[in-house]
Design brief:
One of its GO terms (biological process) is regulation of cell shape. This protein is mainly beta and 337 residues long. Helices cover 10% and strands 27% of the residues. Strands 1-3-6-5-18 form a 5-stranded antiparallel β-sheet, with no helix packed on it. Strands 11-10-9-17-12 form a 5-stranded mixed β-sheet, with no helix packed on it. The chain starts with 46 loop residues before the first helix and ends with a strand.
Length: 337
């Protein structure tokens, strides 16, 4: 498995290298299972800096999500030791799409009896008073108890929301929810509809061929790179492909991407020929889509002959109903005033 690291990452970091998507004889797509693929921002500020950062992001001079004194009181239970090693998927000051959950991972599983304390000390504040909840998600290559995500109760975040996350006394992150962009891929009609700010654009695509179908369901952009080196040997397809693929938008830990593919020049809008990815034409279509989409934006696939992507396969959190989400929460729903 190999990724060319000379290509500058446009957003975020991966906790493990993920390479798994390309087409048989230049067809777009993949069916992969390599690495964890979860974006991890490891540059958490120290405890002293975290308080100032959270206060600024929560309504101080930075003008954000309401002062800490206006939020829930500090938990009565002791601060869990696990928070000292927590890693958060969103960097301080970042702007992310409306679909991005807050995802916190731990090097070791958190025992079930200690999860309520962890959730209580991971304190979320928002400028919009968003109602949401933490929920323990079984990551694609993580053990149960190593990952907990926060998402709103409604469908996606509200654009423009300022969010501050306190990681107990061990750091804080503040970030902004950007303009809404939701792309819906219909595998039956071979078209993708991109909706943003009240406008819609239809783009011809090619998705997974029979037997290597694209995942159904809602996925969230994990990261994107202008080029990715893809090797079919990493996903059990022999020497089928071995080279660079361009304008790669990463959707799942198992290796689903939206990316440029030469076969999409003739097959997009007509036939599905990929190994699971969404292929875009090389006439500028792929680059234009890449340029406008950001980490945290939403891509939903319908009409494919495959199961719905799991919540822990990337950021598939939105494929669970609110009731299902709360079933894996120890502390329950909260309003993030």
């Amino acid at each position: 498995m190999y990724v060319d690291r000379s290509a500058r990452r446009t957003a975020g970091r991966l906790s493990a290298v993920v390479v798994a998507c390309a087409a048989l004889f230049s067809a777009a797509g993949c069916s992969a299972d390599a690495g964890s693929g979860i974006r991890v921002a490891t540059d958490a500020p120290d405890a002293g800096a975290s308080t100032a950062a959270a206060d600024k992001g929560a309504g101080g001079q930075g003008g954000g999500a309401g002062k800490a004194s206006d939020a829930r009181p500090a938990p009565s239970m002791p601060e869990p030791a696990q928070l000292a090693q927590a890693q958060v998927n969103i960097s301080d000051g970042e702007t992310v799409g409306v679909g991005m959950p807050i995802s916190v991972t731990f090097p070791q599983p958190v025992p079930a009896a200690e999860r309520k304390g962890v959730e209580s000390w991971l304190r979320v504040q928002t400028s919009s008073g968003t109602r949401g909840a933490w929920s323990w998600v079984k990551g694609h290559s993580l053990l149960d108890g190593q990952r907990v995500d926060f998402r709103p109760s409604t469908t996606y975040w509200q654009s423009g929301t300022k969010v501050a996350l306190r990681i107990g006394s061990h750091g804080a992150r503040r970030f902004t929810i950007g303009p809404s962009l939701v792309a819906t891929v219909d595998a039956r009609t071979h078209m993708m509809t991109v909706r943003t700010d009240g406008t819609a654009q239809r783009i011809p695509v090619t998705t997974g061929a029979p037997g290597t179908d694209t995942w159904n369901g809602t996925m969230v952009v994990m990261d994107k790179q202008p080029k990715v080196f893809m090797d079919s040997r990493t996903v059990g397809l022999g020497n089928t492909y071995h080279g660079y693929y361009y304008w790669a938008v990463h959707l799942t830990t198992s290796g689903t991407y939206v990316h440029q593919n030469p076969r999409a020049d003739t097959e997009a809008g007509h036939r599905n020929v990929t190994h699971g990815c969404v292929g875009l034409a090389s006439n500028g279509t792929a680059q234009r889509f890449y340029d406008r989409i950001r980490v945290g934006d939403v891509v939903t696939v319908t009409g494919a002959d495959k199961d719905t992507v799991a919540a822990g396969n990337g950021y598939g959190d939105w494929n669970l109903t609110w009731k299902q989400w709360l079933a894996h929460s120890a502390a329950g729903a909260t309003t993030t005033a």
